[in-house]
Amino acid sequence: MKSKGCGLALAIVRDLREHRASAGLVDSTIRNDTNHLELIREWFGRPLWEMQPPDADTYFGKVLRGARPSTRTGRATALMVYFQFLELRHKIEIHNLTGRVVECPLDEMNRPRASVEPRLRIPPTGDEVEQLFAGWREELATCRKFAPAARNYAVARLAAALGLRINEARMLDLDDVRWELGRFGKLNVRHGKGSRRRGPKPRLVPLINGADRNLHWFIEDVWGQLDADHTRPGAPLFPSERKCADGSSGRATADVFRRSLAQAAVEYLPSWAGKLTPHVLRHYCASQLPRGHEPVRHPGTTRSLLDRNHGSVHPPWHPRRGRLGHRTAARRRPMEGIGPMKWNLRLAAANRGIWKASELQRRLAERGMKISAGKMSGLWSGQPNAVKLDELDVICAVLGCGVQELLLPEPETVPEPKPATGEQSTAVGEARAVTPRPHTGRSLPPR
Predict the structure, then answer these.
(1) Torsion over CA of 277, 278, 280 and 281, rounded to 10 degrees?
(2) What is the rounded distance in angstroms from the CA atom of residue 380 to the CA atom of residue 347?
(3) How far from 358 is each of 26, 313, 361, 372, 416, CA to CA, in Å?
(4) Cα end-to-end span (Å), the chain
(5) Helix (H, G, I), strand (E, B) or coil at 233
């Protein structure tokens, strides 16, 4: 409505904040985007839907010229999402009220891009990591506050063994440790890192590389000393010393774990002081191969599987990264006359350029060892029922290797002796009773 006397124009103003969209985003993401938009609007001085490409060029090209690349790209992303929301939900409504067509002022020509060069993170060696945790472990016997220090140690061990992110670890609940799943148990990581603003991605992570023993010690001997109630639903796995308003224990923050790891590196691994972060521990986890799995060469290339995965932060047991010679635990009985050994024929053949079972079967036949396709499949898959000694001689002659390369001992698979009290050990797939014990003594973590 217009006033004819003074020439002033009046328009209807509506508050669009009542229309909210969640899209599965966490509160911190929405808060960050809102803060970015508030700063842009404060500079612009007018409603953001009136911003034109020259205004965006001035803001991102001059006002934010000296800002960090992450700040510029984050602010540009928030502005683009804001205009996408207006165009999808309120474009026609805004045009009817103001006569202005809403259009994003950023395009492919003037949109800021992150110019940060990717950094090559070379993780510490296994000896260096063991040196770090050995010194940290001894500190637990004399530190002033045992429970928080042991909790921070357990989280760092978990990151090095499983490649968990710090935020993934701190968001775990006590009930997320599923001892009944698999041979070692599994973690139900409910707050895995999301992508493309789609929210967290849950996944199951097996407790390998000694993570089961580390968690068993922490839950039984340490968790109860943090003054938390393990019977409360949603009790955090790594609780804080501080209490919430209702008296329950809150979650320890990510900064607590980062600071403790940085301090431990200064004390026990000085060569990595200021450089060892939780993300570097994830790279260390990804660089490790299980015992008996040496790098395999691909035909026609000089790079091994480990080289091809360099720079990836997925651990070697990641389900999307299958490796030659690596299979799940055998359900069939071991070979006759052989103890707990791993049949390593496929890996030994691959190291000599033999990549197909049919090619190895042909070479064995040339040496007088004619076997059926079914038996060859068992030998190649790593699950043979039986291998005769004269067959071992022929295989070693064809591959030019020793028996020790074909049969890898696995003493860790030998079951522990039964307790003298008559208690039976827990079978695979049966839930183990691991609950916090209310005591105040100190116990050192397993090595």
Answers:
(1) 130
(2) 9
(3) 53, 35, 5, 11, 40
(4) 79
(5) coil
Nearest to 29 by CA among 74, 85, 88: 74
**What's the rounded Cα separation, in Å, for the pair 197 and 390?**
60
Q: Which residue type occupies 343?
A: W
- Which is more confidently placed, 366 or 434? 366
**Per-residue pLDDT, 406:** 82
- CA-CA distance, 445 to 138, in Å (whole number)? 9
Nearest to 257 by CA among 321, 181, 166: 166
E strands within 161-254?
177-178, 186-189, 203-206, 239-243, 249-251
Take residue 16 and report the two structure tokens written for it. Answer: 């669009």
Task: Please write the tens of the pLDDT for every residue from 342-354.
Answer: 788 888 888 888 8
Instruction: Give tens-digit pLDDT for 362-395.
Output: 888 988 888 888 888 888 877 777 788 888 888 9
Angle in degrees, CA 145, 124, 276, rounded to 5: 45
Higher pLDDT among residues 408 and 274, named by residue: 274
Type of residue at 273: A
